[in-house]
Amino acid sequence: MQIAVVTLFPEMFAAVSESGITARAFRNGLVRLTCWNPRDFTDDRHRTVDDKPFGGGPGMLMKTAPLQAAINAAREALDASVGGRGDRGSRESGESGAASRARRVIYLSPQGRRLDQRGVCELAELDELILVCGRYQGIDERVLESEIDEEWSIGDFVISGGELAAMVMLDAITRQQPGALGSEECAELDSLANGLLHCPQYTRPQVIDRRSVPDVLLSGDHEQIRLWRLKHSLGATWRKRPDLLEGLELGSEQQALLQEYIEEFETAPGDQCG
Fold it and tell me: What stretch of H or E contains 5?
């Protein structure tokens, strides 16, 4: 997968390109990341990238020409990397060779589609992605209309720019690339991978402050461990994110385990501990 980021602060992306799981994926060629700075496409000695909005008011907008030039440069570089075969899902989708690969240009914005695990998996299937990081008060509406395919958000709050949101998206997408985690099972067991929160996890020592690991996890009985984990995954979702259950169709086994968890939770004295 090839990802291009249009940003005024390319140095911020060292956090994902040089650290942790994402860095390993980049080193192994699973994901290729390039950054394009609108400042490099300015034509004045101050490298100006902001401008006043029409109608007045506080704040500035990103300057249109350098931003468009950076987006177009990212597109052209991606085209060149595969011999200019065109792209499916972009605004050139009607041209010859358009079915060769999938690309989207995404603007990170609090007005966009909310990023969730389903969306992450959808984006991870793309061949190419261009992420546009806004700054100041945002970007010209005409740039949104002409250059951007979709707007995406990481939540209903405002941050100083799109970089942190893009880094969150990059990390989540990279985890979904085959081989990124070393084991496909790791991604399958992540919270929200199946629409549920993860069950409680335990490691050594066996006893901490007189609180012990649940006996079933020490039993070696794989079927009972599976049932325990599923029940407590359902229970964690019921307690912490009941909204997630509303969109799921639980099978008979899941329904029975959830009901069992609820009954145990409601009748148990004191705090709940596995």
Answer: strand 2-6
Give the pLDDT confidence of 95-127 residue by residue, as tens digits.
444 334 699 999 999 999 999 999 999 999 999
Distance CA 50, CA 140 (A): 11
- The pTM (predicted TM-score) of the whole model is 0.85
Residue 240 one-letter amino acid: K
Question: What is the phi/psi pair of residue 259, to 5°?
Answer: -60, -40
Q: In this structure, is the dihedral angle defined by the CA atoms of residues 45, 51, 57 and 58, taken in order, positive or negative? A: negative
C-beta of residue 232 within 8 angstroms of C-beta of residue 198: no
> Would you call 228 exposed, middle or buried from its count of C-beta atoms within 10 A (0-12, 13-18, 19+)?
buried
Asked if residues 233 and 191 have their Cβ atoms less than 8 Å apart, the reply is no
**What pLDDT does residue 175 have?**
94
Closest CA to 6 of 174, 163, 182: 163
User: How far is it, in rounded angstroms, from Cα 17 to Cα 23?
Assistant: 5
DSSP letter, residue 82 = T
Compute CA 89 distance to the chain's CA centroid, rounded to the nearest angstrom. 19
Whose tokens are 């970089």? That residue is 163
The answer to whether 218 and 206 have CB atoms below 8 angstroms apart is yes
Closest CA to 127 of 89, 96, 154: 89
CB 168 within 8 A of CB 154: yes
Nearest alpha-carbon partner for 67 in 149, 108, 151, 6: 6
